[in-house]
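May I ask you to review the protein record following this short note?
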Amino acid sequence: MRWLLIALLISILSAIAPAREVQMQQKVNYGEWPNCVRLTNGQVEMIVTTDVGPRVIRFGFVGGQNLFKEFKGQLGKTGGEEWRSYGGHRLWHAPEAPTRTYFPDNVPVKYTWDGKTLKLTQPIETTTGIVKEIEITLDPNENHVIVLHRLTNKNLWEVELAPWALTVMAAGGRAIFPQEPYRPHPEFLLPSRPMVLWGYTDMKDPRWTWGTKYVQLKQDPRAKTKQKIGFMNTLGWAAYYLNGELFLKRFGFDSRRTYPDFGCNNETFTDPDMLEVETLGPLTNLPPNGSVEHVEHWFLKRIQVGESELSIDQQVLPLIRQTEKYKP
């Protein structure tokens, strides 16, 4: 009798809370691109372009704000030799150089869906011989996305590069980057917080908040200048807060490898239009037909996060602890 009651209870619970699944819609018109793909688990949704790309142009709660920037004057455009930002999330390869970096992604990409993962493949870049691929896996049961970036060398010679994943965030928010834990002098004598400045970085700019535990950068549409810094981020996370929603990235760091830009695996850039949360893989010598992969884990949560470090400790750190297992 007891086992019968347990079986009945399981049946009732299953009926009340059926297993969720990820739905994939093809041929979604978004921003005047007629062939976008939409992924959703019922709570969050992603819009991925296939007329250009590979690129994720939207990520947010269903019916909610897009956490990713959209450049309205560029949406729906295709073709041509001009590089366009479009917005959203994209894949580059470092080190940055005009010919290598700004190859336009203005042509259609191939895509496949196996019921779990959406794979997007760009044609070979004619100026670099590199093929870019992004694989997207949305968790059916939580607001978690695995984004795998792959670069493949189709040249007849070896190429040194690093995968570079750039997420262009919508205007008006605030990026949060962790600092390595405080270590008192003279118990710890060696440096532990590498940070890289660009020639146009102004540390007095009011968009920066240089805290004890965190570095924060505001996106300000009224600003007149650009700002950028890079970190050796061994803690493996960065976040962007906008209108009561927090976008969190988890990513890896390998102390045995060399990273671009004087050792950066995490960078941020802002101008009057947007703010980028960027991660980089280590520099790799790719042989002909060799590939290198770089993984990010994305999370989205509704939460109120103040500008104080106490608020970040109270609201963001619990999420960091919950997602520690996803740090590559």
Observations:
- The mean pLDDT is 94.
- Residues 149 and 294 are 5 Å apart (CA to CA).
